[in-house]
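User: I'm putting together notes for a lab meeting next week and I want to include a structural view of one of the chains we've been expressing. I don't have a solved structure, so I'd like a prediction I can at least talk through. The sequence is below, exactly as it appears in our construct file.
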Amino acid sequence: MANNSALLPIKPYQQIIASGSGAVLTALFMTPFDVVKVRLQSQTSNAVRQNATRTPHLPTKSISSSVLSSATLCRHYMTHQQVHYYTGTIDTLTKITRAEGFRVLWSGLTPALCVSIPTVVIYFTSYMKAKQLLGYNEKSPNPILPVIAGACSRIFAVTTVSPFELVRTKIQSEKVLYSQLFRILRTSLAEEGPRVLWKGLLPTLWRDIPFSMIYWFNYETFRAYLVRSNIPVDTYATFACGALAGGIAATLTTPADVAKTFRQIELGRSKYSPTNGCLTCASTSVNQPIQSTNTLSILLHILRVEGPKGLFAGLVPRLLKVAPACAIMITSFESLKTFFQLANASN
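Assistant: Thanks for the context. Below is the predicted structure for the 347-residue chain, given as structure tokens.
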């Protein structure tokens, strides 16, 4: 992949194809790791919620198991599945496939596509446009410009698709049918109003804005170094730059991702009470959320209950997903962008 920055910008529909194709590939190949990550983070979230409402002296494993058992019995979820305590990425993959089947690893794929395609199209298109307006030049780069462009484009993209992200996270956090999910959504909308669809938006922004800033800073820095060193920025170099930049950004923003998952899996839990007829919830108060919804308060509470490892729950599957996902996404985009640029020039 040669450096074709001197060629004319590609057309809007070509930008959609270039970014959308990468989003589809990423969703198809990386969704299983996302399911594993959400399960591990959901387990941590349940342990923290249990600690906030019951005896804080139980060990983490006992807390997580009892919480998951109570949540499974609750009529609001009606999953009636065997409860498992997950100890790591491979263990989670094994237990999910044995208990729920191989297809469950792609649960939430439809909302994942509904999230990823518009997100990536909006994100990449607005990022490239913002970088162009800011006058970025990779031969004499200003490292602050990709940071600004990345932050602005991410805010716009994440806010737009936040309701779809909420649905995807809820589906992946437990085995739930779409009919049950729609019933939970209707109840939550009636109780809390349309703002419930943006539940978890703030911690998502806490995660995605720094992620975008860190990612584009590192990616553009690596790419600019190759250009200045007269090293061809081919497909392999682009893939490596994307994977390395994505891995760094994913590691540093995992605590915010844990908080985001914590908030979003509360959908349908916030109003449980004895009057709603859920005896399990009434007797144990397992599903009652922590009173504060402030992202920093959630992170501090997780730190007190689970320790530092709680803030990085799901880090391994997150890295297994995000690093190659970033590499696939940027490589697909840059390759198709170059293809369309050359095609436009020849015409």
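A couple of points you could mention at the meeting. The longest helix spans residues 12-53. Confidence is low (pLDDT under 50) at residues 55-81, 270-289.

User: Perfect, that's what I needed.
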